[in-house]
Amino acid sequence: MKKHHHIYAIIALTIIAIITVSTLIVVFAGREKTEDEQLFGVLFKGKLEKFIEEKSAADALTQRLATYKILINSLSKGTGSFLKVGTIDKSSAICQKAIEIAAGKSVLKDKIKAVSDYIHENIKYDFGNIVYDTLGKPRIKAKKTPHETFEVKKALCGEQAELFVYMAGCLDIEAFQAYGGGHAWTIAKSESIVEIDTTTGCFECGMWQPIIGVCDAESCIKLEHLV
């Protein structure tokens, strides 16, 4: 008889436990989950690594854009060491082309993309302008101005970036050459900061290169000048 009592007790406790858990599920389902509960849910589904990776990527992008804003503001305030690289002539053939390809586009980002696409599709990578130093590192043989790049339709990454900045300037769009990690690309200001790599054809990129500094049409500033 005692044996049966034990069985009945176990069954009763099991039923109570099921009812309790069910009640908790209903209560918790009806309210907004806390961050810890959301994280537990991700962990429970075996997606913790992806969650951390995506969160880190988002944090990195936020930091990257913040860095750009600091650099851009420093350029506009005239701080840091500057290197003169030229001024924009709005009567030039470059500006005429920029105005032509942006015609009919009212959205700023569409104009930026039109310039980016033009350079990527029409300016070929200038492999013949690369030499190697004694350490085997690639160096530029003879740097071209934006006008020369536009004329010969060949350029290295930095020359493409400078041409983009020039063409954007023709359209009164704030644009900057960014450099770091042995590569150069561009950033432009529309409703937000947009990263563009005309060498690869990437628009609104998540660039992997570290940021060392940026240049506008007239000057450059390095990140270390701000430290």
Write structural notes for this entry:
The longest helix is centred in the first third of the chain and has 30 residues. It contains seven helices and ten strands. Strands 8-7-6-5-9-10 form a six-stranded antiparallel beta sheet, sandwiched between helices. With 227 residues, the protein is an alpha+beta fold. α6 crosses α7. Helices cover 50% and strands 16% of the residues. The protein has a domain of 146 residues: Roll (C8orf32 fold), CATH 3.10.620.30. A hairpin with a 4-residue loop joins β9 and β10. The N and C termini lie far apart (82 Å).
Poorly predicted spans: 24-31, 39-44, 80-85
**Structural Rg:** 28 Å
Got a strand count? Answer: 10
Mean pLDDT comes to 77
Give the strand line-up of the largest sheet: 8-7-6-5-9-10
Quick structural gist:
The protein is an alpha+beta fold.
